[in-house]
Every structure is written in C-alpha cells, then in structure tokens.
Amino acid sequence: MTHKEDSSSICKKSWIYDVFLSFRGEDTRYGFTGNLYNALHQRGIYTFIDHEKLKRGEEISPTLLNSIKKSRVSIVVFSKNYADSGWCLDELVHIMHCKSQGQWIHPVFYNIDPSDIRHQKGDVAEALAVHEKKPGMDKERMNRWRRAMSELANLSGSHFKFGYEYEFIEKIIKDVSRNLDRDLLFIADHPVGLNSRIEKVISLMEEEAEYDVKMVGLYGLGGIGKTTLARALYNQISDQFECKTFLSNVRETSTKEGLIHLQKKLLTDTLGDKDITLRDVKEGMERIQHGLYQKKVLIVLDDVDQLEQLELLVGGSDGFGKGSTIVVTTRDMHLLIAHDINIRYEINALDHEDALELFCWSAFKKDKPNEGYEEISERAVQYGSNLPLALKIIGSDLIGKGMANWKSTLQKYERVPNKDIQNILRKN
C-alpha cells in the first residue's frame, strides 16, 4: 500500500501499519475478525492484530498504544461482548484520541445495534453496570468509555446483521482501500484539546446549511493553533470533495514567491496540471474561476494577512459548485468580514488543564509533571499564556534539565524574554 503525503506543506507522518484491528477476541478472533484480517493481508494491506502475544496487565502496554498511534486506519469490530472488556474500552478511548491526528476510524457493528452503543443500552448497559461495581473503579475512566462509545457510534461504518460475511468483508476492504489512498496532513504528536474545537467548527458549518458554498474563517493570535485546527478539519472532511488543496503559509509565500506561485499550486492540486504557466495574477484568477467552475472543491488558505490574497486565490463564492467549502485562517478577523466570510470561529487559548498537559508532553514526554516539578510547571505554563506553540517551545527548552536549570531558565525568560516566544505572544 502506497502512503502519500504532501511534502511541500506538511511534515511527514511515520506510519508503520495501514490498519489496526480492535476487537473482542472471545467473540470474533476465530471467526469474523480472523477472516477480515486474512482478507486484508491478501490485499497487501499491512494490518496489526494482537495475537495475544502482548502481555495483558491492568493498563494497555506502550507497545500496543504505539501500534494504534502508528496506524493509518483503525477498524473497531464492536461485537456483543466488546464492552465486557475494560481493556477493549481503554483501547477504544485511545483510538478515538488518534482520530484527531488524522487517523481514519471505521467502526464495524457486528450483530449489535449502533444505537445500543450510542446510548449505552442493552448488553452495553449491562457490561458498564458490572464495571461500575468493581472495587476502585474510576468515575472519569467510565466517562471516557462512554464518550468514546458515543463518538464511535456516530461515525459512518458498517453494520452486519445477516447475509454473507465474505461480501460484508469485501465492502469493508473497499472502504479501507479508498481511505488509505487519501492524502492526510500531519496534525500534531499530541493534539490536546483539538477534538472539541473540530466539533465546534463542524457544528457551525452544519448550522449554515443554506449556503451553497461555505466560507469558513478561523481566527486568533499567532501560535494559538489555527493551522493545527485547519489541518485536522481538512483531514476530517476532505474525502467529501471532488477537488481539494491546502495552501500553507500564504502570508510568507506570497511575500517571498508571489501570489502567482500560490495560484499555480492551487491549480496543480485541484486540476492535476503540473505544467501551468501564468503571465500575471489576473490570468491566474481567471484560470481558477474557469477550471473550478461548478466543481465541488475544498480550499484551505492558511495564514492570510491581506485581502488581495483572498481575492486572487478564491474570489467570491459564486464560481464554485454546490457543497464547496473555503477555509481561511488569519490573525485578522476584519479580513474575514471584508471578504463576506460569515462562518467565523475565534480560537481562544487552551484552558489551564489542557495547557498543562500539552506543556508536559514537551517537557516530560508524558501528560503530567514529574514528581517535584508540579509548581514550577505551573509557572512555565503561565509564562506561555496557554498558547500551544509557546508551550511547546518552553517545554522543549526545559526537557532533560534539572530543577536548578529550570529555575534559572525561567528567570532568564522573565528578565530577557525568549525571542521566539515573544514573537508568538505579541498580538498582531
């Protein structure tokens, strides 16, 4: 299976597996899931399946977590007794977390109604009731399981009730193969707080269903996560469009290489023509309007700072086909108003809990501070003003250093502010 990435605008993701299979072994290992795994293998789709060689403990092993993270697609075979296993439910929580990193999730509802999973009814409710009675059961863990199941049941997937299993499996493989051929953008190693933002933007888009072409603006301070959110949104919805492009760093590229360069890339990505020549930006605009007229397109313009960029790259909404979506990220909300972009979402700083977690991933390679570093970590997060990029820079600067170095580094920040961090913190 060939893995494609847009190397001109994104970091490459180091996938190991095409597919990760999540399932309840007692239900389907020697039947449906075993047959699905064999069919995937025969098609050359490199698939991870736990052959019960990984040691089972109270928590999922780092090896298994890494296998999920390094898979392009996760297939969750939710069967009648899946929820009986706390291990399976913890695995599901991690899979749904990876969804925001660009992983495509394909749920398979095997002899169980998706509504039972969505609303935790029937066998699922009985299984959760048993878990809740276990000594020391953590309420938050139960809540994570419930949220993950509800989210899974709302995804488009495959539902098996009756019929030939080989035909059902064939359909799953076609869906998986199609999605493995998608160009996915790298999001982040630790996309803390991203899921709720994606859900909010999609909700705003759905509220504006009357627009034939949706113009969406994501705005906020530098370093607050606009590009990350735009990439995640692109991954989430890009397979719905006939043509698509993600133009990164519009501000920088238009200054260094000119808007003609961006017009050429837009036309190449959407129409596949690699030998485009343009005399000037006016011709470029005409070619875009003519080539994409009435096509259902997804165009993302990242980091726009001039109205001219919007006018010469996408113009108005009347030239694109019904269902098209234009997404713009910018620091300047007034650009969105001036271009009649009516769907606007302001990205605010992370809440304190998410900010601390993101900082810890950079500083400690885990989701919480090392023992004894709790108070000074709070100080570092405060200095970073809960802005994702600033928190990553500070954490990367402090990782591996002792307490004395942490204190002296933070004191130096406060006396002579770090240039990179100050560039992010300035409000422009």
From TrEMBL:
InterPro entries: Apaf_helical, Disease_R_plants, NB-ARC, P-loop_NTPase, TIR_dom, Toll_tir_struct_dom_sf
Coiled coil: none
TIR domain sequence ranges: 15-180
SUPFAM superfamilies named in the record: P-loop containing nucleoside triphosphate hydrolases (SSF52540), Toll/Interleukin receptor TIR domain (SSF52200)
Keywords per UniProt: NAD
A GO term for molecular function: ADP binding
GO biological process, one term: defense response
PANTHER family, alphabetized: DISEASE RESISTANCE PROTEIN (TIR-NBS CLASS)-RELATED, LEUCINE-RICH REPEAT-CONTAINING PROTEIN
Stated name of the protein: Disease resistance-like protein
Organism, as annotated: Quillaja saponaria
Biological classification of the source: Eukaryota, Viridiplantae, Streptophyta, Embryophyta, Tracheophyta
